[in-house]
Design brief:
Blueprint (H helix, E strand, L loop, with lengths): L11 H8 L22 H7 L27 E6 L13 H10 L2 E6 L4 H14 L12 H9 L12 H6 L16 E13 L1 H4 L18 E4 L2 H11 L9 H16 L3 E5 L3 H6 L5 E5 H9 L7 E3 L5 E9 L7 H10 L3 H11 L8 H11 L2 H11 L15 E2 L6 H16 L1
Parallel strand pairs: 1-2, 4-5, 4-6, 8-9
Antiparallel strand pairs: 3-6, 3-7, 3-8
Length: 426
């Protein structure tokens, strides 16, 4: 919201008009045959600036119930998730999902429906704004979006007494995140790191710093991301600015630094998920990248020479959380679902297939035991999985030089994104 703008002045119609000209391609759909992470529709963020936090709109659903008031288990559950973000077996089966249904008797409508950020969120925002149920018991929107949704009162606070397995097995790296202090409204599903991927033979050695992507020797061969939260965060770190403490002036400096890189002709293109195509094809020699993509292509996708590095200035650790939207009909069933997938043996099955960073303690030990049972290439593969920092995060994020996205307010996000649009428009 611009300085001096009255709260409530920006309506949904204005937000939608602005949204048409903005880009939100947050890990749209990972092309590892559809490996998925997530993003956000622009309309929600822009609309969020138009209402004071915590003020319910006209016609809102009843105030969020306390945990003690949650209805009993209903035996049914609806989950909105990204494609191919859960384990698969022959015939399209989802073994862990089937195990949950068999054990609990809860019938799950699990729909891989979030295949486009804007399209999915465009259906939810009017419902949130009108205070109506979304029709989903669990949704999966990205970590930094959680803070914005909490600000607007759109997520149900979680009942920790119903999540004993989560509390026991949630890895330290994903506890008490900036976007959701105390994990009060969300449970991480999978995670990853934003850093740099490169071809050593093409760049002439190692890349160690984000600033290396400004090297004139890489003219026309660098890939940058259209995702504001990634690109601005790494640029701020390069400028020595803590993203959590950054001001709008700092964001302006980051914008100017990115424009400098662009005008020098170093950037081949600003990419959404398609960055991986040009990187694997060696059209780009170095690129901002998401760890899960690089892990797959390096070990399974025919690009063994690719390297991934956390820049010396710092990288970003992120999570794909599960959230219960306000108005969900079956919140107790949703809690049972979340808690079930924090059993190490269940989480290991998901991680083995998805190949993204697990938030669950005990999965690495399962991978190591599996490696001991196997021989040859299979053993080597599971040893690689078990020892990869791309699948198992460090306990100490600061020591690993990993940072979280800024916990934006709706107003801040709009202002920062306006600056980043100046970079992309060039």
């Amino acid at each position: 919201m611009a300085p001096g703008t009255r709260r409530g002045e920006i309506g949904m119609d204005d937000a939608w008009r602005r949204a048409l000209g903005q880009r939100f391609s947050r890990r749209d759909l990972l092309r590892r045959a559809g490996r998925g992470s997530l993003g956000l529709g622009a309309a929600a963020l822009l609309a969020a600036c138009g209402r004071e936090a915590g003020v319910a709109p006209t016609g809102a659903v009843s105030p969020t119930p306390s945990p003690r008031e949650l209805p009993p288990v209903a035996g049914e559950l609806s989950v909105a998730q990204w494609p191919l973000y859960i384990d698969r077996a022959r015939g399209g089966r989802r073994p862990t999902l089937e195990a949950f249904q068999e054990e609990t008797g809860i019938r799950v409508e699990y729909r891989e429906i979030i295949d486009d950020n804007h399209a999915f969120f465009s259906r939810l925002v009017p419902l949130f704004e009108a205070g109506q149920p979304t029709g989903w018991d669990i949704i999966a929107l990205s970590d930094w979006v959680v803070a914005l949704m909490v600000e607007q009162g759109w997520l149900l606070p979680l009942d920790r007494s119903l999540l004993p397995t989560v509390d026991a097995n949630l890895l330290p790296a994903f506890r008490d995140p900036v976007y959701d202090p105390g994990n009060a409204h969300s449970v991480p599903w999978q995670g990853g790191v934003t850093g740099i991927a490169y071809h050593p033979d093409l760049v002439g050695g190692e890349i160690t710093a984000f600033g290396d992507l400004w090297d004139p020797r890489l003219e026309g061969r660098v890939g940058m991301l259209t995702e504001m939260v990634d690109t601005m965060t790494l640029t701020l770190l390069m400028l020595g600015v803590d993203p959590q403490a950054a001001t709008l002036d700092d964001a302006e400096r980051a914008k100017e630094k990115l424009i400098e890189q662009r005008e020098a002709g170093i950037v081949r293109k600003y990419y959404g998920q398609d960055y991986i195509d040009d990187l694997v094809a060696k059209n780009t020699w170095a690129s901002m990248a998401w760890s899960g993509d690089i892990f797959y292509y390096k070990y399974l996708g025919g690009a063994p020479d690719l390297e991934f590095v956390v820049p010396e200035e710092g990288g970003v650790i992120w999570a794909t959380p599960l959230e219960i939207p306000v108005g969900a009909e079956h919140p107790r069933d949703a809690h049972l679902f979340m808690d079930f997938f924090y059993r190490p043996e269940i989480a290991a099955m998901v991680t083995d297939w998805v190949l993204y960073m697990t938030p669950v303690q005990g999965v690495r030990e399962i991978m190591l035991r599996k490696a001991e049972e196997l021989k040859g290439a299979d053993r080597a593969y599971y040893e690689t999985l078990a020892n990869s920092p791309l699948l198992f995060p460090p306990d100490d994020l600061a020591a690993a030089n990993l940072h979280q996205y800024r916990a934006y307010t709706g107003e801040e996000f709009t202002a920062w994104n306006d600056l980043f649009e100046e970079v992309l428009r060039g």
